[in-house]
Amino acid sequence: MTLKVAIAGATGYTGGELLRLLSQHPHVEVVSATSEQSAGEPLVHRLPSLKGYYDLTLESFDPKKIAEKADLVFLALSHTKAMEPARQLIDLGKRVIDLSADFRLRSAPLYERWYQLPHSRPELLKEAVYGLTEVYRSEIAKSHLIANPGCYPTGALLLLYPFLKAGCIDPSREIIIDSKSGISGAGRTPSAKAHFTEVNEGMAAYNVGVHRHLPEIEQEIRRIGQQKMTALFTPYLLPVNRGILTTIYLPLNEKFTQKKIDSVLDLYRGEPFIRRFDGAPNLSQIRGSNFCDIGAFATPSGRTAILMSAIDNLVKGASGQAIQNMNVMMGWDERLGLMSPGIFP
Amino acid sequence: MTLKVAIAGATGYTGGELLRLLSQHPHVEVVSATSEQSAGEPLVHRLPSLKGYYDLTLESFDPKKIAEKADLVFLALSHTKAMEPARQLIDLGKRVIDLSADFRLRSAPLYERWYQLPHSRPELLKEAVYGLTEVYRSEIAKSHLIANPGCYPTGALLLLYPFLKAGCIDPSREIIIDSKSGISGAGRTPSAKAHFTEVNEGMAAYNVGVHRHLPEIEQEIRRIGQQKMTALFTPYLLPVNRGILTTIYLPLNEKFTQKKIDSVLDLYRGEPFIRRFDGAPNLSQIRGSNFCDIGAFATPSGRTAILMSAIDNLVKGASGQAIQNMNVMMGWDERLGLMSPGIFP
Amino acid sequence: MTLKVAIAGATGYTGGELLRLLSQHPHVEVVSATSEQSAGEPLVHRLPSLKGYYDLTLESFDPKKIAEKADLVFLALSHTKAMEPARQLIDLGKRVIDLSADFRLRSAPLYERWYQLPHSRPELLKEAVYGLTEVYRSEIAKSHLIANPGCYPTGALLLLYPFLKAGCIDPSREIIIDSKSGISGAGRTPSAKAHFTEVNEGMAAYNVGVHRHLPEIEQEIRRIGQQKMTALFTPYLLPVNRGILTTIYLPLNEKFTQKKIDSVLDLYRGEPFIRRFDGAPNLSQIRGSNFCDIGAFATPSGRTAILMSAIDNLVKGASGQAIQNMNVMMGWDERLGLMSPGIFP
Amino acid sequence: MTLKVAIAGATGYTGGELLRLLSQHPHVEVVSATSEQSAGEPLVHRLPSLKGYYDLTLESFDPKKIAEKADLVFLALSHTKAMEPARQLIDLGKRVIDLSADFRLRSAPLYERWYQLPHSRPELLKEAVYGLTEVYRSEIAKSHLIANPGCYPTGALLLLYPFLKAGCIDPSREIIIDSKSGISGAGRTPSAKAHFTEVNEGMAAYNVGVHRHLPEIEQEIRRIGQQKMTALFTPYLLPVNRGILTTIYLPLNEKFTQKKIDSVLDLYRGEPFIRRFDGAPNLSQIRGSNFCDIGAFATPSGRTAILMSAIDNLVKGASGQAIQNMNVMMGWDERLGLMSPGIFP
């Protein structure tokens, strides 16, 4: 059985990563790849690493034409660009996995406040399922529209989920999320913030307190945790290609020993893409893979736990999780196309 | 007037950095440079960037012989190696600036607990002045033995000092210190933790909760702040050559607006090496310089402030601060030898 | 059908890369992994990226015991360490693929001159097949002992092979080989030459004119080309984890246009792991893959061609080529276990 | 005595580097810094590393207004932008050091062929002195218009100059120049070729055989060497911030031993910024400094020499050499403002 898929926005980093991973998927055929800037060019001109894997010529994105060829469409476009195509593709009976931010926030006014633009398809916000696979697996299985999570929220929420379920967070103190991202998170379009000599051998926080992934994180914390909790979120750009290393200083409502922390994390037993380490996880051990590696530490007071996760922002933080969601939607083994370990060194 | 100085441990990174900076100092002549492993070799064989600046041949370290040539000795040795030479050099009437950890902790039992070794010269702990220049300037001016601060403590304490002075920290919550260091902090001796392919394109925390700079930080927090406060300290290795980026989540005992934070930081007005920025400081702007660049952010609750500092771990975090202390000891302009801006890019 | 293989020297970079790649091979089971330093430890302690893929405990290397479990053994040991085990394993009827230099040079005296050590098993030099797959495929298929090529020789010889076959090189001028290697080529043992802060943001040639891969290259040039030709070989360490970029300035015995160069390279049509590009190949497009990407340029005089290849030194330059050779020996599709494209970015 | 200087194009990397170096110059005051995009902004907003060194507000570039304030103007603009301002400033009696390519080629038709644009001020080509200080020092001292050399030509010509003077190059073979540049050579304007994730962990040649620095190199080779000689020039982008490592394979017209090579290089005795090393020079030893470090190797045949140089492309390859030229023009010690050693690590 072969699923025909299309990728809208194939020449950005998440689009390219979908193509890289899908080249290893036994049940998928990529029938179309789109790019507005490079329409008409062979795909491999823009992604020479894929030479020999794809014969596709890049097309301009026309949802109707795509719908004639593909049964599932990955939208790897910038935000606001996914709203209308998602509507069209769904109306044509297609499955859609959207990697942009357009369907992640459940409230249109909240979207409009943070993205400074009106949401043209608020009715889809109710239909969309937030694609954090480990948390919403059963909803994903039944859905036709997946809002694939942001990279930072994935790294943070996978750490928080077991503690939210266990109901052990102290809501009177802030959850502190200190999150360091590789430069591919800034996208493939040239910009000062991702210019080699501006970021190499440097490091700095950016958008302190005002990053758009904060409302996404807080939405899910409150929904899963069922009470009002507040996060401080500090993102940084780190001079590496891939990876997000997230450290969370978690306020606890009672004293936690290491053993108790470990038992909360037992929730993840059997999860194919969550790996628990005794020490601190390193970005170098998940490069190119779909794993979320986790470490967790008790502190002397016992009232704060230190949690750490390492993910590849392009894989578990974007395209890998999107494929994992596709596998869930199709009722396949969740690991298909995602079975390679990370590349080290 | 020329001061004759010697550098014990000249071929490590802090020794090399002393030599680089002192080559620009108008009142200093380096009369001796030691290395146990390379004694007999020309200095510039081990430090080719300094070719043309120094004609010295590396010597084995003999405090008595050094004392015949030099008036001030920088000890850039590994910990425990500085105790006896410091005693000898002081007895011979020399000034000593020690860049190791041997005289930083004021309590010998505390040293022994964290370094797992007896302290052979506990009587010097009382004489030694902790060389955080901006805090202990007047004591430094009168001292003959400086315990030059650790790199992480420098980046953290310079952020905390104004708030400790202002008495506005809430001692019931932990001070969270999340600190990312370039690899030169691991020294010049080959090791797995600084092997290129082990750390490049990666990032991880290490020694979570058990790093030896934690007691140094807590000692100074409590001494300056005059009450018991607790810190959580998480250090990371970052794949850049130089720099420490420290973020502190500071618990405040009342609501702080941005304005109030700024007014606390006004304490640093006129400090030649502290620069205040509106945004987040970047490691790329202090590379090779003695600056400590600072940013500070209020949060929605007002009960936590987010503070950030960027220093070059080899300059302000080690050799630059050592030279600044030497300048203070000699009654010179504090900036001598330290006037170059950072190298960007 | 499943082949049982063992890896001697599993915790170095080529050993780890064999394990990474073999985890994706449909017909191979790794039954043993050895390490002298870490014997008794779980394999994944030393290679955390492989957690979930292997349950092996590292063993000390005992050829007899290994031979009881495995049918083919990869020797990923340092040079001189492979001679005796190869003898033993062959005598026990096993296939051996040696990734060290021990069987690459066909002449024991030549080996002894360059490696400054006697060769204890010169009789095996005649049996060993030089495992440059594209050149010696039919011999490899019949062999039980493969001398897997060095990383630099692989990148250089794959460029030279078509021109050597075409007989168009001018032997009166030197073949100039300028070859830039990522740091993983220096191995996993900590050393000054691979210490992060010594090599990051730097670049330099090393062993100019005296690198041990020079006699290996010259041996094959002369053997394939059937006449005496001389190479100048300049290797460099480049601050990246993986990859060798080789540029050859090739002296031609007649005027060559671009078209004529292209027609010589047509020899590679149909080769699964050689990709020809119109422009210059980039290390970023073959990272983690078994490809050798090639570019070639005519010059105004036509008497010199500029050839370039990009390989991943750990894959096509070592472990990937070793697996390709295993596939050839077993009569399998040469691409098994090697089908992933490179990771970009 | 203080010279008033202006910098046109102050926010690019060569402009910023002029400012960094001039901050250490005892006889220079920077009275104006221009930027079209950031006119009206404080200079330190664009160059935060210089905070505390300059109080300037960026201006739009108006040659007449600049001429009222400054006696010497550095033009750090992109090519074609320097022609008219140079004319105006010279007519107003000012000295001009142009860091663009506009006055480097002595022939307007040659310029027009390589830059695909007419040269509007061909009469200035005769007046301009090519600012390769070590070669044209006496002409520079008398000039009012300096064409500061390109970064690649500087690294290559400083290697070739002594051999050209010695008349020992074989003109029947090509001079092969293989030159690896850090990314700052691509400038500060965001572009795909300098986008972090496109170049980090990669390396590739570009503009093979068609780079605009080739005619500049060939012009000077022929002029200094007084005969027709041909070069093959291959530039690469290397994932480091700064530095050009140039290797030249030099065809010699007779057999050269190491000793004979060394004696040719003795020409540089006494040069303050040329350092000769026995081994291969490393980019890490000249970072941020004005040195050109040189290594040279004989080969078995003796008919080819291997020459290597390491320069910082922004210093000796641009702004440092420009300041060196200014010092020569002013009759000052050539080293003023350029006395710092490189930053290592």
From TrEMBL, chains A, B, C, D:
Pathway entry: Amino-acid biosynthesis; L-arginine biosynthesis; N(2)-acetyl-L-ornithine from L-glutamate: step 3/4
SMART domains, per the entry: Semialdhyde_dh
One example GO MF annotation: N-acetyl-gamma-glutamyl-phosphate reductase activity
Signal peptide boundaries: none
Annotated compartments: Cytoplasm
GO CC list: cytoplasm
EC number: 1.2.1.38
Chemical reaction(s) catalysed: N-acetyl-L-glutamate 5-semialdehyde + phosphate + NADP(+) = N-acetyl-L-glutamyl 5-phosphate + NADPH + H(+)
Record domain Semialdehyde dehydrogenase NAD-binding: where: 4-143
Active site: C151
Keywords tagged on the record: Amino-acid biosynthesis, Arginine biosynthesis, Cytoplasm, NADP, Oxidoreductase
Gene Ontology biological process: L-arginine biosynthetic process
Pfam families: Semialdhyde_dh, Semialdhyde_dhC_1
InterPro entries: AGPR (IPR050085), AGPR_AS (IPR023013), AGPR_dimerisation_dom (IPR058924), AGPR_type-1 (IPR000706), NAD(P)-bd_dom_sf (IPR036291), Semialdehyde_DH_NAD-bd (IPR000534)
HAMAP family according to UniProt: ArgC_type1
Entries under PANTHER family matching the protein: N-ACETYL-GAMMA-GLUTAMYL-PHOSPHATE REDUCTASE, CHLOROPLASTIC-RELATED, N-ACETYL-GAMMA-GLUTAMYL-PHOSPHATE REDUCTASE, CHLOROPLASTIC-RELATED-RELATED
Family in the record: Belongs to the NAGSA dehydrogenase family. Type 1 subfamily.
Record function comment: Catalyzes the NADPH-dependent reduction of N-acetyl-5-glutamyl phosphate to yield N-acetyl-L-glutamate 5-semialdehyde.
Protein name per the record: N-acetyl-gamma-glutamyl-phosphate reductase
Organism phylogeny: Bacteria, Pseudomonadati, Nitrospirota, Nitrospiria, Candidatus Troglogloeales
Gene: argC
